[in-house]
Write a structure and sequence with these properties.
The protein has 272 residues and is of the alpha+beta class. Among the domains are: 34 residues, no CATH class; 56 residues, no CATH class; 56 residues, no CATH class; 35 residues, no CATH class. The protein is built from four helices and 15 strands. It has a three-stranded antiparallel sheet with strand order 3-4-5, with no helix packed on it. It has a three-stranded antiparallel sheet with strand order 6-7-8, with no helix packed on it.
């Protein structure tokens, strides 16, 4: 605090009573400081150390510099290792990052020997081979490859082609008997039936359909058993035509014809 006294005031001499008052005030301050220092006891910080190494104070301050450094070569069995340092002094232990013990590869294989490498596999069956990188003894220092096999045959449905179907490269298609197709064909649009011509069989043409309709109408107009004729008696009698009885004339017998001829045409003489 800057003095507000003048130079003339500062030139005056002090009495002993003045010095005693100063000493009393100074003692109050020092007693308070001593009390605070005594209260710290064993918890008072006198030196700052990092891993046993004392740090030097600069401008009444101790600067603790902490850094995390990745080691050029990882500790054995680990993917990476990091060292924590304070003011250049390494702290222990290191931070070790374990290796990623997961799937290294996966391939689709075909069984060459029955029940190998998986029980239940038949020759030709497909299976998946997963290669897993694991720690053999659990401490991360020794590695080995384990295999997991999965039978995928049970995951796949097998289809076969039936009558009229063709199966090739996983694709079904309709088969057409080319020797007796009669205009039938199949394409991306589906199954089609071509219109018949004079030389190629196929679907009924419009003209043929009209003629078929006319013939069908005509046939529908003919009554049942229209061409049936029934003779009820021999000789004179009736005949049934289209369900209706008609009277018929009796046909003369051979003897009656001979008698009639004898009456009308006498037998010729012998020439006498």
């Amino acid at each position: 605090m800057a003095s507000t006294l003048t130079a003339a005031q500062l030139a005056k001499l002090a009495k002993l009573s003045h010095l005693k008052s100063l000493a009393a005030r100074t003692k109050v301050v020092t007693d308070d400081l001593q009390s605070q220092i005594t209260g710290l006891g064993s918890d008072a910080i006198k030196t700052v150390k990092v891993n046993g190494t004392a740090l030097t104070a600069t401008n009444n301050a101790v600067d603790v510099l902490v850094a995390v450094e990745k080691k050029t070569t990882a500790n054995s069995g680990y993917a990476a290792s990091y060292t924590i340092k304070a003011n250049g002094v390494a702290l222990s232990p290191d931070i070790d990052i374990p290796k990623d013990f997961l799937v290294k590869s996966a391939t689709l294989e075909t069984c060459a020997t029955a029940d190998t490498p998986l029980t239940g596999l038949a020759v030709g069956d497909p299976y998946l081979d997963f290669v897993i990188n694991t720690a053999a003894d659990g401490d991360g220092s020794t590695e080995t490859d384990d295999h997991i096999y999965i039978n995928v045959k049970t995951l796949v449905d097998t289809y076969t082609n039936g009558n009229g179907l063709n199966l090739s490269s996983g694709e079904f298609s309709v088969k057409i008997d080319s020797s007796n197709a009669n205009g039938l064909s199949v394409g991306s649009g589906g199954v089609a039936l071509a219109v018949a011509t004079d030389s190629v069989p196929g679907a009924m043409s419009a003209a043929d359909h009209a003629q078929f309709t006319a013939d069908s109408t005509k046939l529908s107009g003919i009554s049942t058993q229209a061409n049936k004729t029934t003779v009820t008696t021999e000789g004179a009698g009736t005949i049934e035509i289209d369900g209706t009885s008609k009277t018929i004339v009796e046909i003369a017998a051979d003897a009656d014809v001979a008698t009639m001829l004898d009456e009308e045409l006498p037998a010729p003489s012998s020439g006498e």
